[in-house]
Design brief:
- This protein has one domain: 3-Layer(aba) Sandwich (UDP-N-acetylmuramoyl-L-alanine:D-glutamate ligase).
- It is about 35% helix and about 25% strand.
- It contains ten helices and 14 strands.
- The strands form three sheets. A six-stranded parallel β-sheet has the order 5-4-1-8-9-10, sandwiched between helices.
- The longest helix has 16 residues.
């Protein structure tokens, strides 16, 4: 069972252009799609497609079109009373796969709204193998709220994965650095990891060994594993057992939206299957590359992934 929290859900609208994006020009769209989304919801979508039990916790009215779509798609969601409507995010994709995202902030929350989500999450966590805290926080939420949740979930048997950025990511890293509760998995990208460790983001993106050294800092501080997604360069996994880099198969990129979420699910799926770290990483990259080859926020099915085409090799980390 995977329980996901999407604290700031969104309706994801994707406009696929017939030509490159040009400021100030009149452009034509090949298609416009919309889907109930958010990082946690995307992971629950992937779980449903793979036959993995999942529950999505999120703030929304029970009869909101957002929730009804999730239920129609087979996602067991537990909506909690929101403080405002679900936000709308816009993605513009170009023919070469270049993706431009415009994200709105969402409705401001109060402590009562956060407490409702926390209570619902903690209740479901008791029956889960993994709890996933994913995405941005809504306006009004303290930057350290995810760090609070990691600490709160420590009294359950569930493993905790966190995929966020900006101030919430820094707050969690600060908690870990000072000996506080650490998640079992963190999934930053190159820029996000560099912002925590002070490394050069371009070097982290381009050099798997530099990326692994940077991720290793979090592992030495108590994080169970760091899955570092590097876009077209694949991904790096660092655990206490070692470090590995995976190269994706050749992929015609259509949209990168949801690729990181798919990678995270691939890793969780491998863990639920009892796979060793190498195979978890292989599945993560297979899912991420499959998502990049699909339009909009489409989450791949297992039969659309090609883990056998993902090359994984070990990295040797030297101590300074």
């Amino acid at each position: 069972m995977i329980v996901t929290l999407t604290a700031n859900p969104s309706i994801d609208r994707t406009v696929a252009l017939t030509s490159p994006l040009e400021r100030g020009a009149v452009l034509r769209a090949e298609s416009v799609t919309a889907q109930s989304g958010g990082k946690g919801v995307n992971i629950s979508r992937a779980a449903v497609a793979a036959g993995v039990p999942t529950i999505a916790v999120l703030p929304a009215e029970k009869d909101d079109a957002y929730v009804l779509e999730l239920l129609r798609d087979g996602i067991d969601c537990r909506p909690e009373q929101p403080v405002g409507p679900v936000r709308v995010n816009l993605t513009v994709t170009e023919p070469d796969g270049t993706t431009t995202k415009i994200n709105t902030p969402g409705a401001p929350v109060d402590r009562a709204a956060l407490d409702r989500l926390e209570q619902a999450l903690h209740q479901r966590a008791r029956q889960a193998q993994w709890v996933v805290l994913a995405g941005s926080l809504p306006p009004g939420a303290p930057a350290g709220w995810y760090a609070e949740l990691v600490d709160d979930l420590a009294d359950t048997t569930a493993k905790v994965a966190v995929d966020t950025s900006g101030a919430p990511l820094r707050a969690l890293a600060d908690q870990v650095a000072h000996g506080g509760s650490a998640p079992d998995l963190m999934k930053p990208n190159g820029d996000e990891l560099a912002s925590l460790t002070g490394e050069d983001p371009d070097e982290v993106e381009a050099d798997p060994l530099a990326a692994a050294h940077a991720a290793g800092l979090l592992v030495t501080r108590g994080v169970g594993a760091v899955l570092l997604t590097l876009g077209a360069n694949g991904a790096v996994l660092v655990t206490a057992e070692g470090a590995w880099v995976a190269t994706p198969p050749p992929t015609t990129v259509v949209s990168t939206v949801g690729a990181g979420d798919s990678s995270l699910f691939g890793y969780l799926l491998g863990d639920l299957r009892g796979a060793p770290p190498v195979e978890r990483l292989r599945l993560a990259v297979a899912y991420g590359s499959a998502a990049a080859g699909l339009p909009g926020t489409t989450i791949p099915r297992p039969d659309q992934t090609r883990p056998e085409l993902v090359d994984v090799r070990a990295l040797v980390l030297t101590k300074d």
